[in-house]
User: Which sequence fits this backbone?
């Protein structure tokens, strides 16, 4: 069965519910991520458990309206309690989060186990809120969840600009007269709402993952907010569906943890493979840098050998090169071969000379080295015997644009601090 | 005898967690403690599956490794890959915990751990299946408490200095990272040893709440450590009777009792402080 | 430029480059400091002043170059070196009192796994007396004013009984009386042959306070006796903005994750 078949055959209210919840939590999660309040989501989720129980105790049923209302009230209360503790005592925000989380959750478990031991037949399944209970979702549950999720999505779209402002620059948002408290309340309220519908699928313990992980994944693929939200939604929906599908196929596999596992795997893959930020990219960048440094150093060395002999068309052996600059033998062999293949060097037996392009490049590196040495002595006031090592690095890095500025700033100098002539382009 | 054993074990765990929690609080690493308490789960389950029985040595080792791994990976994510600290913590511990829960569910027939036990433990069954005069769990916790007290007494100055002023401590040659990992190692060890009895909720509560309450009422670190232990022990005792009264999970009740203590202390501090302030003004 | 090197320096910083996230924040810093002088490190915000002393203390890794104190690596001479971090760098709500902070200065004299003896407590009280804080010894640190907190930090440094002192903005946010107390103490220490190196902000008091200056703005603009170095021209160079080419190249290093040394 292909994946498409699976999708078509199982389009089912559960999946619709999951898609909507994943979308809402990914959007809201991006804002909690950007406001560096990722762990507040964890606290709200844990603290909505007592609300679930209170809703049940008051109404005597598991009707989703009461449960949702109960969870929403204690969830919202917890968000404000955290702020209250931070403002009114010397406790810092991490402790405040921890206090509200652990007390809220313990009260929830206390009530839950107390209800369970009361032999009330209606209670069975309430503990599904701890680790989620996708399979037992009723159509009526999904209708309410879907309604709330759509409301959250619509509100976010309508107030996108305001949310972005208070997330990035609260003081600026206040200074331009935005009703900061009201917008913040709205954002907190939709965060709580999202968590409240999320805990029915994924459970209070792991709800934080549905908020944090998609935005953390997205952050590794883009720097732009709109793209970040989009990627977070896609990743979240993908993992939601995969997790739910897998748990429907494997007996005993709980849905919530299964979704979180997929999210964690995608996160791990993103940390390793994402462009610009991933570990692999950084490793490749390092290899590329080393390659560039090696090749340019060889060209520069041969150029300077030619300079010393006043003949740039002469052939030089490996021994000549090694006398001028230290290379590891296998590195030198590799570099020489690659430079020959790229057309920068011409080989004859066991000796090499610069091609026309090779000479231009070797000359450029030599020129940049000497210009940078002058810059360091003139502008950083370093003594001439201290500038060589620094220039050894910077020569590989200077762009043509910076080179122009540098030459202009230095006034087209003729010689470097060691009285070596600066080779300009012919 | 059983209620007494439960109260003793609860108090021992409360003391271990409260002592370590004080340092976590002062280092602003409370949520890292929470993360470790969750993340040791796969370590416990895997050593369970591998050793095929409740081999406590294997579990202690496996879970302590998992705890240190969490600390290390959060640090790696935030320092080397530049993911902000709170998000790194959230991503790591939910992932670890999810894997733990999944393993428990999949190997449910092979191991006698279940999801409820993960959350609120089996302290209620303490000593029921064991003929020993004093249950082994109590001995184990007693040893760990002894280790923690030794650690804090011997390393008091290093812990104090690296916690208060890491830059100065490093400038006189104290290795900050060493003490950091020692502390996290003890947090993992305590979490694992208490896990089966009280589950993750109570471990997290004992790590956070008693130190926070003690922090509000004292200006001395030594007194803070002692008060935190006392608050934890009072919570354990009153929590037990609360659980009997409500017929609910013992671990959750102990945790709620600590919470009530914290709220009372908070109110006391507010009222007392305001009275002192108003006296100072007039 | 003006860069006076000294015979038999007590501190030698040689061609020091320090990077943060691969981007150099200090380039090729090179200077020496003689024994028994009061040194001010002067420069605009973000010039790398704190970074420089943290690097000297071995708290930040070096990209290239080296530091020698008493002609040794820092790890061999920590007992003779004292460091006073910025007051804002710690949490003053910490549950401890003034004398406990000062006793931290006696760390090595107390010894591993031992508690402070009477001699240590006497030394700590003596240090507190020098900063005129005797009556506050048992006071919880959050109940001290900013100036008093700074004095406690200074007392901790005095208790270390070192030969060379590094202080990160000891005059930031303190009252005039505290500033006076601190500067008199520092000057007394210098008269006893100690060397004191201070990160300083207030240009008004530079001539009055310091014998020797380092002018810093990501690179060393000048170093030497105050009378030679404290000139309009050099100050203009120090405070006249960053070198734009240097920042650009720094950004390139970061962007390409280039190693600072091959």
Assistant:
């Amino acid at each position: 069965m292909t994946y498409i078949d699976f999708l078509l055959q199982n389009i089912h209210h559960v999946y619709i519910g999951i898609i909507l919840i994943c979308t809402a939590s990914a959007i809201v999660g991006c804002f909690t991520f950007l406001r560096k309040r990722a762990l507040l989501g964890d606290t709200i989720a844990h603290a909505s458990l007592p609300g679930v129980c209170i809703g049940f105790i008051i109404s005597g049923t598991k009707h989703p309206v009461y449960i949702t209302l109960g969870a929403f009230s204690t969830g919202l209360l917890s968000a404000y309690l955290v702020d209250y503790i931070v403002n009114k005592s010397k406790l810092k925000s991490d402790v405040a989060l921890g206090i509200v989380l652990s007390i809220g959750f313990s009260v929830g478990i206390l009530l839950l186990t107390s209800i369970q031991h009361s032999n009330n037949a209606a209670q069975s399944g309430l503990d599904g809120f701890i680790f989620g209970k996708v399979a037992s979702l009723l159509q009526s549950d999904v209708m309410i969840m879907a309604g709330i999720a759509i409301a959250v999505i619509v509100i976010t779209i309508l107030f996108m600009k305001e949310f972005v402002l208070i997330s990035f620059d609260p003081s600026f948002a206040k200074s331009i007269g935005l009703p900061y408290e009201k917008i913040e309340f709205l954002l907190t309220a939709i965060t709580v709402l999202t968590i409240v519908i999320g805990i029915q699928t994924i459970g209070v313990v792991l709800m934080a993952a549905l908020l944090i992980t998609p935005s953390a994944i997205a952050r590794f693929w883009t720097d732009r907010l709109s793209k970040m939200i989009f990627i977070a939604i896609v990743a979240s929906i993908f993992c939601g569906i995969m997790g739910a599908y897998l748990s429907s196929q494997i007996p005993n596999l709980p849905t919530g943890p299964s979704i979180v596992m997929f999210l964690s795997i995608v996160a791990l893959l993103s940390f390793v493979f994402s462009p610009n930020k991933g570990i692999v990219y950084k490793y490749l960048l390092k290899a590329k840098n080393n390659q560039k440094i090696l090749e340019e150093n060889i060209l520069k060395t041969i150029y300077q050998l030619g300079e010393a002999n006043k003949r740039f068309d002469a052939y030089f052996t490996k021994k000549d090169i090694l006398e001028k600059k230290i290379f590891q033998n296998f590195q030198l062999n590799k570099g020489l071969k690659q430079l020959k293949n790229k057309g920068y060097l011409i080989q004859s037996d066991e000796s090499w000379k610069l091609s026309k392009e090779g000479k231009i490049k070797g000359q450029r590196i030599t020129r940049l080295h000497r210009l940078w040495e002058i810059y360091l002595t003139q502008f950083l006031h370093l003594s001439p015997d201290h500038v060589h090592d620094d220039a050894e690095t910077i020569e590989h890095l200077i762009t043509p644009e910076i080179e122009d500025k540098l030459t202009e700033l230095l006034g087209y100098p003729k010689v470097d601090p060691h009285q070596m002539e600066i080779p300009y382009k012919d | 005898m059983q209620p007494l054993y439960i109260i003793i074990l609860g108090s021992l765990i409360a003391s271990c967690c409260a002592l370590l929690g004080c340092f976590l609080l002062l280092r602003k690493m409370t949520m890292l403690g929470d993360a470790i308490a969750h993340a040791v789960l796969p370590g416990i389950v895997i050593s369970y599956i591998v050793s095929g029985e409740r081999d406590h040595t294997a579990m202690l080792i496996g879970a302590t490794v998992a705890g240190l791994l969490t600390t290390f990976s959060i640090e790696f994510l935030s320092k080397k890959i530049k993911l902000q600290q709170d998000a790194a913590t959230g991503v790591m511990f939910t992932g670890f915990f999810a894997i733990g829960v999944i393993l428990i569910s999949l190997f449910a027939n092979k191991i006698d751990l279940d999801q409820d036990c993960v959350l609120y433990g089996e302290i209620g069954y303490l000593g029921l299946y064991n003929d020993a005069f004093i249950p082994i769990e109590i001995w184990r916790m007693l040893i760990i408490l002894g280790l923690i007290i030794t650690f804090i007494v011997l390393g008091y100055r290093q812990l104090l200095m690296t916690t208060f002023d890491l830059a100065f401590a490093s400038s006189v040659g104290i290795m900050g990272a060493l003490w950091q990992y020692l502390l996290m190692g003890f947090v993992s060890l305590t979490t694992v040893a208490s896990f089966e009895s009280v589950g993750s909720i109570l471990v997290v509560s004992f790590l956070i709440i008693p130190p926070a309450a003690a922090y509000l009422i004292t200006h001395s670190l030594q007194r803070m450590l002692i008060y935190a232990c006392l608050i934890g022990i009072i919570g354990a005792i009153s929590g037990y009777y609360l659980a009997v009264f409500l017929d609910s999970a013992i671990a959750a009740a102990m945790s709620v009792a600590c919470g009530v203590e914290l709220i009372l202390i908070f109110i006391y501090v507010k009222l007392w402080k305001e009275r002192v302030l108003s006296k100072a003004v007039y | 430029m003006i860069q006076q090197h000294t015979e038999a320096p007590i501190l030698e910083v040689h061609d020091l480059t320090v990077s943060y996230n691969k981007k150099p924040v200090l380039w090729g810093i090179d200077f020496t400091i003689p024994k028994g002088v009061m040194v001010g490190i002067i420069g605009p915000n973000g010039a790398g002043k704190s970074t420089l002393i943290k690097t000297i203390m071995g708290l930040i890794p070096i990209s290239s170059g080296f530091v020698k104190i008493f002609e040794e690596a820092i790890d061999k001479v920590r007992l003779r070196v004292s460091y006073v971090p910025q007051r804002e760098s710690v949490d003053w709500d910490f549950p401890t009192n003034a004398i406990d902070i000062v006793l931290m200065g006696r760390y090595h004299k107390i010894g591993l796994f031992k508690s402070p003896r009477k001699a240590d407590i006497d030394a700590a009280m003596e240090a507190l007396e020098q900063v005129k804080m005797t009556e506050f010894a048992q006071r919880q640190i959050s109940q001290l004013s900013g100036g008093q907190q700074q004095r406690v930090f200074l007392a901790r440094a005095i208790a270390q009984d070192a030969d060379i002192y590094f202080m990160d903005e000891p005059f930031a946010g303190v009252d005039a009386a505290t500033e006076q107390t601190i500067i008199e103490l520092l000057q007394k220490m210098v008269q006893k042959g100690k060397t004191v190196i201070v990160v300083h902000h207030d240009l008004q008091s530079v001539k009055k306070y310091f014998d020797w200056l380092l002018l810093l703005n990501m690179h060393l603009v000048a170093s030497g006796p105050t009378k030679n170095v404290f000139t309009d021209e050099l100050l203009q160079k120090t405070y006249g903005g960053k070198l734009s080419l240097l920042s650009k190249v720094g950004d390139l290093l970061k962007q390409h994750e280039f190693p600072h040394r091959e």
The longest strand of chain C covers residues 23-33.
